[in-house]
Amino acid sequence: MCDTIVALGNSTEDGTTIFAKNSDREPNEAQGLIYIPRKDHNKSEIVKCTYIEVPQVPQTYEVLLSVPYWMWGAEMGVNEWGVCIGNEAVFSKIPYNDTGLLGMDLLRLALERSKTADEALNTIISLLEKFGQGGSGSVIDPTYKYHNSFIITDPKKAWVLETAGKLWVAEKVKDIRTISNGYTIEKWDKASPNIIEYAIEHNFCESKDEFNFIKCYSDPVPTVASNCEARQKNTTEFLLDKKGTINVETMMKLLRTHSNNNSNKEFNPAKATMQICMHYSVNSLSQTVNSMISHLGDVHTHWFTCTSAPCIGLFKPFFLRNIGLPKDYNFPNKNYDPNSLWWKHEKLHRLVLKDYTTRASIVQNYYKFEKTLVSKNNQIIKTYNNEQELNKNLENFSTISLLMQNIILDLLIHKISKTPVKNKVSKIYLKKWDKLSKSIGLKL
Description:
CATH architecture: 4-Layer Sandwich
Largest sheet: 8 strands, antiparallel
Radius of gyration: 21 Å
Strand content: 15-25%
CATH class: Alpha Beta
Low-confidence stretches: none
Distance between the termini: 27 Å
Shape: globular
Helix content: 25-40%
Order of helices and strands: EEEEEEEEEEHHEEEEEHHHHEEEHHHHH
């Protein structure tokens, strides 16, 4: 399950929009970044999405996407215009199709084709109504299907879009907005023309006066997303308490939150439920596999962990501006690869889980220089003389940040593997992780 967040300029410290998301998926489902420059296309081209094909457009924009290794679409991402989108699985009364566009496909298509949040909203709606959504969203379970909600933002505006089959409602964001894995819109600004009539015809409600989108379209059967209201409430309250002072570091802290009171003390991942920083456990089948924060100031900076577990991860800066990804960044695949940042960090993560109480603090202490990265990024943006110099400095900064984490990961893996276990962990929990690790060739 996931959490997507936006704070518009009227709520942030510097008056700029900040977008954030934790992407939660299966624990062995590596997720990496891909960069695609702006491209021109022929009229005859088609786009092969995860399950179906759609016509291509004359031009697609420069994008930076966070992509599960096996699918075409993206869990979250941004384009050259500062349009950011994150999607959420939601569960409705409307039947799920065996094939169609995944929510992740819709997200990528919208980023490739839209200059503004308004355009992205209309792009998703148009594709949804024409092609529908469908297909499994899981690499291991072909029956795992769902519908989708989205936060769509640009530097000035944001929308929440919630869908059920080909039907949808959309709400314009006023200041701070969060979504999790359930429907949230009661008063919309736009909606499918037949949204109420469909509900009445299918006995979701008896009249227009009785209609409530959340109650009418939500699946009444409890799902793994059953605690989404609590999660959304916690994220909203966290941000409202800091309204007017929200910055990148605020979002980093939020995405690392474990407990309902936003405290990470005495956290036990073996007993974790569905917190913002998600951990695979006896109670939860997924974990946070990548985290994103986009700061849409005069120069857009996109912070990604490119790893699981943001609580022991490091946010690093990435940029579009035809800079792309550092040359040493390797996209992760299905099996363990020590040359991939995602898998290298995953080895560290699984070593930490053998005694989270003792070992997590060691890792977190090494990553204290993250504040220096944020400060350095601001300094680079404030002191450049021309665009060429700025882009070169940003490219070097992104490359060095990635290099620093790789060096520290090697040190930490060695250090943590030699750190004695002081707190016993459930044998059942450790056996589950051992089985997962063996299946992808990861030896601890």
